[in-house]
Specification:
Number of helices: 15
Order of helices and strands: HHHHEHEEEHHEEHHHHHHHH
Helix content: 55-70%
Shape: globular
Strand content: 5-15%
């Protein structure tokens, strides 16, 4: 994560100069000031100086420096000399504090390669693809275990029977379920490196609920939120609306974009067969499983896509709903931003990209690249992931 190194030194200088000016001004205005009184003032001024690091304009600094100069003679000159000495000593104290503080901050944001990650996935699952996009963008080293969708023997050790599952094998091995939970937990961990993965999971308690089909499922509180304190929020999300915007579009990707994928991939018998062939080719299937998944799966998914079309009240040509959704996404980004996250992809960018990536090589993917405005954005995210731009 970016530690803001380019701002550390100017902020330190500004804080010290502001503090010096404030102490000098207070001392000059008091002719008979006792040493104990000055000492009592220093902590309050120190806190005031460090609490406004964002104000580093040149004119502001000059005003505070020169406003501390004495306007009279005699006792005022003595007081001013005392203030200069005290201010210089205070400057050294504050300088040491900020150097130490920002060194720790920069260390906290250094990329951690000690985590051993294992992702249990289906290659063509949109949720698994979203997790991979996040891990690749941030430069994580991780192992993949491709799960057989029929037997699922690779995850027979787990009571959670869906994918993705991410196992974090550190000092305390942790199992993370659900794509959005995995991403929010790891992102929070990267920013707050003083906490372990287990500590971070406290922010995301699980609970049982019933889905629209009447099945009991496990959900997680706050799973779309990166959990930060107020200082970190301003660092990661400089604009007040960007955090809520990220959460909104991550939810949109799960609740609306993902349900559009299957009806489009299996829209016709020919597309269903091509999609199932792609799934078998990229997945973990035995000879018999592969044959059944390729041909019987194509028939089953073709009719299941019709059920999904009815359930989500899609248009007769489901491609039109997908076109409209992606153009809505591009419009929300606007012309002045490269990504939803601004100059760099945020979690919403990675989520939408990961969902769309599972259609690569299929007619549905070629159609959206040709008939929507999403292509340029998609290629920018792809390049950012390939270059692992989130690593620094």
């Amino acid at each position: 994560m970016h530690c803001g190194k380019c701002l550390c030194k100017p902020n330190m200088a500004a804080a010290c100069l502001r503090t010096f000016g404030q102490v000098s001004r207070l001392v000059v205005r008091t002719r008979n000031v006792r040493t104990s009184a000055v000492a009592a003032l220093i902590p309050a001024v120190y806190m005031q100086g460090t609490g406004r690091l964002h104000d580093t304009s040149g004119s502001g600094l000059r005003t505070k420096i020169f406003s501390a100069a004495p306007r009279g003679g005699g006792g005022s000159a003595t007081a001013f000399a005392f203030a200069v000495g005290g201010g210089f000593g205070l400057y050294q104290i504050i300088k040491f504090y900020f150097q130490h503080h920002y060194a720790e901050e920069c260390l906290d944001h250094t990329f951690d390669t000690e985590l051993k990650l294992t992702l249990y996935q289906y290659k063509t699952c949109p949720s698994c693809s979203v997790v991979r996009a996040f891990l690749e963008y941030h430069g994580f080293d991780y192992e993949i275990v491709e799960v057989n969708p029929i037997s699922r023997q690779e995850i027979e050790w787990s009571t959670y029977r869906n994918v993705p599952i991410l196992v974090v094998d550190g000092s305390e091995p942790v199992q993370l379920n659900d794509a959005s939970l995995i991403i929010s937990t790891l992102k929070t961990y990267l920013i707050n490196k003083n906490k372990t993965i287990s500590d971070t999971l406290i922010y995301y308690p699980e609970y049982k609920t019933t889905n629209s089909l009447g099945n009991e499922v496990t959900e997680y509180c706050n799973k779309y939120w990166v959990m930060l304190n107020e200082i970190k929020v301003e660092d990661v999300y400089p604009c007040k609306t960007t955090r809520k915007e990220e959460v909104r579009w991550r939810m949109w990707a799960d609740d609306w974009l993902v349900p559009l994928i299957s009806p489009n991939m299996f829209r016709s018998p020919a597309e269903a067969l091509a999609s199932c062939d792609n799934i078998v080719r990229l997945g973990n299937f035995g000879p018999i499983d592969g044959f059944l998944a390729r041909y019987l799966g194509a028939v089953a998914m073709f009719f299941f896509s019709k059920f999904l079309k009815f359930r989500h009240r899609l248009q007769d040509d489901v491609r039109e709903d997908l076109y409209r959704a992606l153009n809505e996404w591009v419009t929300a980004i606007g012309r002045k931003r490269k990504f939803m996250g601004g100059p760099h992809p945020n979690l919403a960018d990675l989520a939408v990209y990961g969902v769309l990536r599972v259609m690569e090589g299929l007619k549905s993917f070629d159609d959206i690249m040709e008939n929507t405005k999403v292509k340029a954005w998609y290629q920018r995210v792809e390049k950012a992931i390939q270059q692992q731009q989130g690593r620094s």
